[in-house]
Amino acid sequence: MSYVMPALILLLLGYALVRRVNVYDAFTRGAMEALPLLVQVLPFMAAMLIAMNLFRSSGALSVFISWVEPLLARLGLPAELVPLLVLRPFSGSAALALLQDVFDNHGADTFLGVAASLMLGSTETIFYTVALYFGSVGVRKTRATVLVALLSGMVGAALSILFAKTM
Asked: What is the reported pLDDT for 141?
């Protein structure tokens, strides 16, 4: 499996060679075209990341988790997975760190490890994605996007628990 990326790169370079495309020029031209988009999106990403860090470092995240944990436990979500469910819509890297923590404490092939893996794979970093994509095209009113995305994330998390229980 480790040969897939090098094979794709070689295939792309071979295709460019056959079509007589200057790969370096095409790459630098594409990078230059992407810079204005980066400048346009950067403020939205920075605002979202600062808000997420404030949410975590202020203790508001811990308070929120303590509020929703009893309800989610009644719904069948193990307490060890509540932080993963809460942080996933905000940060993929924080969710990966929590997944690693679940693996370290409970094992990757346990119920919690499998459920956490399925949950991470079936949910999305909603606020990051909304900030990035809506910000890049200048959409200011997200309407029902966040609500529907959060609902679909909850459905994905619930189904991941159900699938993990059946495994």
From this structure: 85
